[in-house]
């Protein structure tokens, strides 16, 4: 049973509720893919308001312990990569200017991962990539769901490299970057301009060529698609940095 947080609202209470939910996930050994109770049920269990519970869930999404599935709810996401992502995130928080270097590392890891996936991916892994792309497209307009779906899409393809260490390091780096990119919108529950439904076609067109290259076994196309995605992400990160500086 979760301890009651009363009717207090605000970020400190949300962090407290997030800590309680995290404790339940860890102490109960909840398996990955287990669906958490609805926000309404969690609000009743904790005595907090639904907005506070919603913010607590967003905190757990940023930490990588929970993923959001649009129209379905929040699910447990317990992986060894979580602690590595926390370390990378700490390094970034200590030196925000290093985000450019971290994004370069993400490019190098994904480039190698996709190159290997092009030669090693099984039909089932390509199908998993197709499913991840559909989920990604359906998440446009929902920042929390997009973070989970975007990480799932890229990680699914890099895991097809059949190198678990490369996949784990890549996922940690990607997760840290995307959480940094969207942290302000996650905190406020809003949507950035480039993630609005009107941009859905462009976002799909940015990701689909990566999957197509793996499906078609086209290494050159894969490197071009990954590099194009990298440049767009670099632009978004530069906008975030400029906004933070202002």
TrEMBL record:
One of its GO terms (molecular function) is DNA binding. Residues 11-79 form the HTH gntR-type domain. PROSITE patterns: HTH_GNTR (PS50949). It comes from the Bacteria. Signal peptide: none annotated. Keywords: DNA-binding, Transcription, Transcription regulation. It comes from Trebonia kvetii. This is FadR family transcriptional regulator. InterPro entries: GntR_C, TF_FadR/GntR_C, Tscrpt_reg_HTH_GntR, WH-like_DNA-bd_sf, WH_DNA-bd_sf. Pfam families: FCD, GntR.
């Amino acid at each position: 049973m979760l301890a009651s947080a009363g009717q207090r609202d605000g970020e400190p209470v949300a962090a407290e509720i997030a800590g309680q939910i995290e404790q339940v996930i860890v102490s109960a050994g909840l398996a990955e893919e287990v669906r958490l109770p609805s926000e309404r049920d969690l609000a009743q269990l904790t005595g907090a308001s639904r907005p506070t519970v919603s913010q607590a869930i967003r905190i757990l999404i940023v930490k990588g312990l929970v993923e959001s599935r649009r129209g379905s709810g929040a699910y447990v996401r317990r992986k060894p990569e979580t602690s590595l992502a926390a370390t990378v995130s700490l390094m970034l928080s200590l030196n925000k200017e290093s985000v450019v270097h971290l994004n370069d590392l993400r490019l190098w890891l994904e480039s190698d991962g996709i190159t290997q996936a092009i030669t090693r991916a099984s039909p089932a892994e390509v199908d998993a990539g197709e499913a991840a792309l559909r989920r990604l497209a359906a998440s446009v307009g929902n920042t929390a769901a997009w973070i989970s779906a975007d990480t799932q899409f890229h990680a699914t393809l890099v895991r097809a490299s059949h190198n678990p260490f490369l996949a784990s390091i890549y996922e940690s780096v990607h997760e840290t970057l995307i959480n940094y990119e969207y942290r302000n919108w996650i905190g406020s529950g809003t949507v950035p301009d480039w993630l609005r439904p009107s941009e859905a076609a462009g976002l799909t067109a940015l990701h689909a060529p990566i999957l197509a290259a793996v499906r078609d076994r086209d290494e050159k196309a894969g490197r071009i698609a990954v590099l194009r995605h990298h440049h767009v992400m670099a632009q978004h990160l530069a906008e975030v940095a400029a906004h933070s500086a202002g």
